[in-house]
Amino acid sequence: MTDKLAGTKPPTASEVWFDTYLRAHGYTWEPEPDLGIPKRPDRLIHRDGLRALCEVKQFDKDPIGWMRETGQGGWFDENKPVRGAVRQAANQLRPLKGRGLPLVVVVANPNGYHVDLSGEQVIHALYGDDTIVFTVWTGEARRHRISRTRRTTGASSGATARSASAVSTSARS
Predict the structure, then answer these.
(1) Which residues contact 28 (CB under 8 A, 6 or more apart)?
(2) Pairwise CA distance, residues 99 & 89, whole Å
(3) Can you give the three-state secondary structure of 5-70, one letter per residue?
(4) C-alpha distances in angstroms, 138 versus 62, 78, 168?
(5) For the range 19-26, what are the long-range contacts, defined as Cβ-Cβ under 8 Å and sequence gap of 24 or more?
(6) Which helix (H) or strand (E) holds 136?
(7) DSSP state of 153
(8) pTM for this predicted structure
(9) In a structure prediction context, what are the per-residue pLDDT tens digits for the chain, which is 173 residues long?
(10) Strand order of the sheet with strand 142-152?
């Protein structure tokens, strides 16, 4: 249960946080276990006879830092950092699929950057943003359904698409 093996890179702040969590909750772990793949996962954790492989990701860039640096404003996808971290970790863990161990992505924000890791935002980042749909009565015999959303277009790609639509529905009875 050492924090790092001799000869490996020093732990990131997020790995130190995760190790502290593991220690406080009675886990033991192996840092960067050799599982025969080019890029080792960060931790193989153990507790109560169960094991899981964990890849720890932290945010090293502020997604809106460029606004401060350049004095410019603009729109940015607030879920992109989480989607990117999960995509990167999933690609790294993919060769371990089918080995019978849970594969876990741990994300942390030790630098306090503008990355929202609340449960709701992480759900949106992983499964797509919520959608707001409402019906507008125009005074005519038809109703219009209006929807506005940004949604994930591919489960593995993490790409997003923006859409806005107004769809006519059947005549009101």
Answers:
(1) 1, 22, 45, 46, 47
(2) 17
(3) CCCCCCCCHHHHHHHHHHHHCCCEEEECCCCCCCCCCCEEEEECCEEEEEEEEECCCCCCHHHHHH
(4) 44, 34, 11
(5) 19/43
(6) strand 132-137
(7) S
(8) 0.69
(9) 444 444 467 899 999 999 999 999 999 999 999 999 999 999 999 999 999 999 999 998 887 776 777 776 667 778 888 999 999 999 999 999 999 999 999 999 999 988 899 988 899 888 887 777 777 666 665 555 555 554 443 433 333 333 222 232 223 32
(10) 132-137, 142-152, 160-171
CB 88, CB 57: distance < 8 Å: yes
Tokens of 10: 């020093």
